[in-house]
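Prompt: May I have another protein with tokenized structure?
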Amino acid sequence: MKALAARRRHPMAVVVLLLLGLLFTGGIYAVFQSNSTANAQTASSENLGHGKKLFIANCATCHGKSGQGTASGPSLVGVGAAAVDFQVGTGRMPLAMQGPQGAQRDPMFTDKQVKQLAAYVASFGPGPAIPTKEELNTNEGDAAAGGALFRTNCAMCHNVVGAGGALTQGKYAPNLSDVSSAHIYEAMETGPQNMPVFNDANLTPKDKQNIVTYLKAVTSNPSPGGFKLGSIGPISEGLFAWVFGLGFIIATTVWLAARHK
């Protein structure tokens, strides 16, 4: 005991204890880190496996088994997870029928299956990823700045408040009032169908967040002036005035003339 007490008072005792503590802490961290990495790799492998099965069964006929594309469908190499999450998550894919553009409908797959498909297609090549919660946080966005950007880049097709509008050859820009924040963000990143791609060089992630914030603010606000008339501007308002206003004047004139007779 005296010998142990003497060694404990040795100047190097503190250094030895610190080294032992560091080794113990590092060992525990390495064990937990390896377990979490293994679990993440297992989950990723499972997603890819399930996504591959879904892809082969539902998408490979048009896009090829490796997403290389065929005469019936374009290549998916490099489109990224965001494109799949948008197209499949909104029900546009798989196509219900051939037409000028894929129409939105109820999705065929659950959200989990959509994410599995997206993970598998993302493995074909690098592309835009599904936006994070931070990128979609409208509490951090600037609706005024987003409105200016939307009017400059999007209003010519979607209307200034996202009400949508007709395009050429039977195509149309959809109404954005019921579109989720993630799908709006993904559409800007991937440019589906007639829409141009707004990459980070055109619109930064902050710009996209501001546009999403603007659309959510506009579509959620009530209309203090009464009927919105589709929110498509002076055309609907002028038509309403001509049909009902002029109709009322004509009806009143006919009624007065009939009474005079």
Q: What stands out?
A: The longest helix spans residues 13-58. Residues 92 and 103 are 6 Å apart (CA to CA).
